[in-house]
Amino acid sequence: MAMPDGLPVDQRSPRSIGASEVTGLEAGTQALRATDYRHGGEFCLTALDALIRAGDQMLTASASGKVRRQLYVALADLHNVAGWAYFDAGFANRARTRFCHALVLAGLGRHAGLTANVCYRLGRVCLHQESLDEASAYFQLGQLAAKQSGDEIGGSILSMNSAWTWAKKGSWDGARTQLDRGRGQFADADHTRVPDWARFFTAADLSALTGAVHTDLARTVDRQHARTAVPLLVEAIDGYGDDMARSRAFSLILLSTNHLVEGDVDQGVDIGFQALVSAGTLGSARVRDRIRPLAAHARRHGSHGGARELAARVSAMPAPPAGGLP
């Protein structure tokens, strides 16, 4: 992907910077975040690395105290986006490095709300890798930072993801407690003043996460949770626009899974093929990882021709590349 117009790509370190340079950095970060949500992290890694090089050069420039603090926060968010993109592209170690940079810069900028968001994203890396205790620890740290900043949206994101962790551990009580907390925080939040890094968390995303929680509870506690998950995921899919194509693909995968668990094979297969089409348009290793278990669910309905075809097509997806980036 080419750098969006207007980004600071001059390779020479500026002698001094003002608010306009930081605003340009923020605009570049926002553009690349939008690309990540719409197309997947694989489509924006090169541009993110170039923007980070340009942003890091600003650290050596002279600036007022106010501008320098704004720069720290802007750079922290840029590293935050880069970490998420690397995670989505399948490079967890690089993602963790970027997130660590983001935590340091957010601390220098004294921005507890952004610190909470970085903790959430680090927790999600752990959740994807099934490192559930580590994920819980990051979500708890994030909750402390969100509470310090008075950030109810950030707190809701962390509570809902904590609920997902409890669901994966097989605890309905733990998941329910965090679900209730997260929904309460979302209801109490000021939705007119949401920072860029948390704007993804809309009512659609709240429904999607709740559906994800019940999907895992159907696996670890009681399959009846699949019935609860279905309308939540339908609501999420209907609420996502093309700007959140990756999130919609995740929800399609979960919805197909739940229909297959419930025995509604025709619906499960139909939605599974929709998920495959969506996955094929995205540069996201994470989507490909999340769709692979769908093959096993489809194979449980071996007498259904569509289910057999779905399982075969999912199984034929390319395997993750061995190793990482050079």
TrEMBL record:
Residues 1-20 are annotated as: Disordered. InterPro entries: TPR-like_helical_dom_sf. This is Transcriptional regulator. The lineage of its organism: Bacteria, Bacillati, Actinomycetota, Actinomycetes, Pseudonocardiales.
